[in-house]
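An example makes the point: we let one protein speak, the chain in one-letter code, the fold tokenised, and here it is:
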Amino acid sequence: MVTAALAARPTAPVPGLCPGCAFLVRPVAGVDTPPAAPAELAAALDEIAAAGARVVNISLALGPVAYGRTATDTGIRLLLAAVDRAARHGVVVVAAAGNDGGLGGSPLVRHPWVIPVVARDGNGRLLPTSTLGRAIGRHGLTAPVLPGALTGTSAAAPVVTGTVALLWSLFPGAPAEAVRYAVTRVRPPGRRPSVVPPPLDAAYAYDVLRDLSA
């Protein structure tokens, strides 16, 4: 469903966000039930990065790994190390913040390189099921939920992923750090809230990246 949301033709009932982009899809065991294992997601992230991906969308449930009930410490370490490698190779990582309606989030969305995405409805209201937290507020974004089979933050994350892809298509020589900075920067004199991230502002991100690329 993520690929459909991104790749659908402009004439589709729900137009895709970046239909001209190339896509790599790597299934992860346990996307539905049970939740995905962090070690399996780590392997998938390494494979996608090695295959040449520039931005990765993670719309899946890891389960309550922040509390250590669905993954071993080794699995979590493998996952965070994979994100570190993605950052070194210039791969932007966008992830659904989670849908437990609580505070904190998984170790994945607390990683400083990951852009966690919180969901809002068409009127700009946060979905009450969205996971919030200090790390999510510090380096994440809110985005509207795309219509379709996905729900919650998993449906909002592709909006940010598609924006990153479109920005990179306009500024293909920009480094990953610049693209990530542009899309997460708050419009002056804005300040980032403590636990709720600011809304995605694609127009401002374009202006920031244009200035950085001048």
